[in-house]
């Protein structure tokens, strides 16, 4: 009679048949586990499954093989293999739990933009608690060590360890509070104390921040919890920036503000919404300080955008003839000339403006001194539809075209005004205005026009006439509607100038 393979191996090695049977089953289980591991590794490399999911499936198969092997042990060897099977089961359970936790946090904590998903403090805490439970189980079932008496007898040792590690424990609990309250997330730009940077990781003990200089800073969690925290990405992603710009005392505010606004609108990186603004901040003995207020999309672009803004302001100042004041004070031996007054040609152009009719030469000259003159080349935009403003342009020379969409609706020359509705009522520009030929304009702002109103109250009636003419043009077929619109516009005018 021919013996089977197991009987042959038993007789050849001198081992009992049951031992050979257990060894063969163990070898078969290991071979199956190796084949499954290889297949899952190949699938993970090709991107068919994620690595945490592959690890979870692999160790679930390993756990099943361990329990299957334990169930098929003969009764004579069951007691001897209990401890080995228990140890293998604990190892397999630990690997299953570890990959399950990793897979859960990867699934429900996706990456944000270009910031890769990082280790989560709750992820580490979950693994630690599972490991503690499995370790206690192993001590009880494999080594027959009861944890109850051990824990009660080590109260003094626990107190000593707690006192010596209070900073570490404080960082741990602070990290847990940060994860629960979520004052920031990975990828947010924050400021803690004097440290500014992007959060890349939150661990048990520290929060890792990478500064704009590409330096990694590890901030203890208890320090983050105690210090004043600023999150630049909440509640809105855009950031408000302010740059102080000095200007000479003799430069009219309308000229400086218009130059700053023109520079902000064309500077790369400045958001159109919310709209930028220029504000007069301070009047000093040798200069006037303005604030250029603008918004950027991301914190890490603030230096590049500030560079673009300051460069645009410098070039705009040079284009409009606004000089930057020198540092400190200077001694002059001769009196500096005041801003040049109006020329006879300019006075003649202003006298022909219906809104300014009846003003004397001194009043017109005062208006010129409180305003600024700008020259536009052919094709250059003087005003754009939809933009807000508080200025109007009096055309001193040249010719302009007024367009709505692609249709030209009017051409205006010397002695006419554009943009008066924005100055008088604050409403947005209703049309685009471009220079057709070299054009010089007197830019009058709301404060300069207020000077005219204070000296000549009769101008108010001319304003009312302008509103009525505009409303009648818009509602030619309905006089009551035109009258109501005129009254509404006039009420807005009075709210701005009274």
UniProtKB/TrEMBL annotation:
Species of the source: Solidesulfovibrio carbinolicus
Record has Transmembrane as a keyword: yes
Listed transmembrane segments: 26-44, 56-73
SUPFAM superfamilies with a match to the protein in the record: cAMP-binding domain-like (SSF51206), Mechanosensitive channel protein MscS (YggB), C-terminal domain (SSF82689), Sm-like ribonucleoproteins (SSF50182)
Cellular compartment(s): Cell membrane
Protein name: Small mechanosensitive ion channel
Domain of life: Bacteria
Record's bilayer topology term: Multi-pass membrane protein
């Amino acid at each position: 009679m021919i013996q089977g393979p197991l009987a042959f191996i038993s007789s050849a090695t001198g081992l009992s048949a049951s031992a050979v049977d257990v060894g063969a089953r163990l070898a078969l289980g290991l071979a199956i586990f190796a084949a499954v591991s290889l297949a899952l590794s190949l699938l993970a490399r090709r991107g068919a499954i994620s690595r945490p999911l592959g690890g979870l499936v692999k160790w679930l198969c390993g756990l099943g093989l361990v329990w299957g092997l334990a169930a098929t042990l003969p009764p004579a060897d069951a007691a001897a293999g209990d401890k080995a099977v228990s140890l293998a089961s604990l190892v397999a359970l630990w690997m299953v739990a570890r990959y399950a936790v990793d897979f859960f946090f990867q699934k429900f904590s996706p990456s944000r933009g270009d910031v890769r998903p990082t280790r989560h403090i709750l992820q580490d805490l979950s693994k630690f608690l599972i490991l503690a439970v499995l370790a206690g189980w192993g001590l009880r079932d494999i080594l027959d060590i009861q944890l109850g008496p051990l824990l009660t007898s080590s109260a003094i040792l626990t107190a000593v360890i707690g006192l010596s590690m209070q900073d570490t424990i404080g960082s741990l609990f602070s990290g847990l509070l940060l994860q629960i309250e979520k004052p920031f997330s990975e990828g947010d730009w924050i400021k803690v104390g004097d440290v500014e940077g992007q959060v890349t990781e939150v661990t048990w003990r520290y929060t890792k921040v990478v500064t704009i200089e590409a330096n990694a800073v590890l901030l203890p969690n208890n320090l983050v919890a105690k210090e004043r925290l600023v999150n630049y990405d909440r509640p809105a992603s855009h950031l408000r920036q302010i740059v102080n710009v000095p200007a000479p005392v003799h430069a009219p505010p309308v000229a400086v503000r218009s130059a700053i606004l023109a520079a902000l609108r064309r500077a790369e990186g400045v958001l159109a919404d919310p709209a930028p603004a220029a504000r007069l901040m301070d009047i000093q003995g040798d200069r006037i300080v303005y604030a250029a207020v603008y918004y950027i999309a991301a914190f890490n672009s603030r230096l590049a955008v500030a560079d673009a803004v300051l460069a645009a302001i410098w070039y705009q100042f040079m284009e409009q003839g606004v000089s930057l004041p020198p540092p400190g004070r200077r001694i002059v031996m001769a009196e500096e000339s005041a801003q040049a007054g109006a020329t006879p040609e300019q006075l003649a152009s202003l006298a022909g403006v219906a809104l300014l009719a009846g003003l004397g030469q001194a009043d017109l000259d005062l208006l010129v001194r409180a305003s600024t003159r700008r020259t536009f080349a052919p094709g250059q935009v003087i005003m754009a539809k939809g933009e807000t403003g508080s200025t109007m342009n009096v055309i001193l020379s040249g010719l302009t075209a007024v367009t709505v969409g692609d249709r030209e609706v009017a051409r205006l020359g010397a002695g006419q005004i554009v943009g008066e509705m924005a100055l008088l009522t604050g409403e947005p520009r209703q049309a685009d205005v471009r220079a057709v030929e070299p054009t010089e304009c007197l830019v009058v702002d709301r404060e300069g026009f207020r000077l005219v109103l204070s000296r000549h109250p009769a101008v108010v009636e001319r304003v009312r006439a302008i509103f009525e003419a505009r409303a009648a043009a818009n509602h030619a077929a309905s006089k009551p509607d035109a009258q109501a619109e005129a009254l509404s516009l006039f009420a807005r005018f009075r709210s701005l100038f009274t």
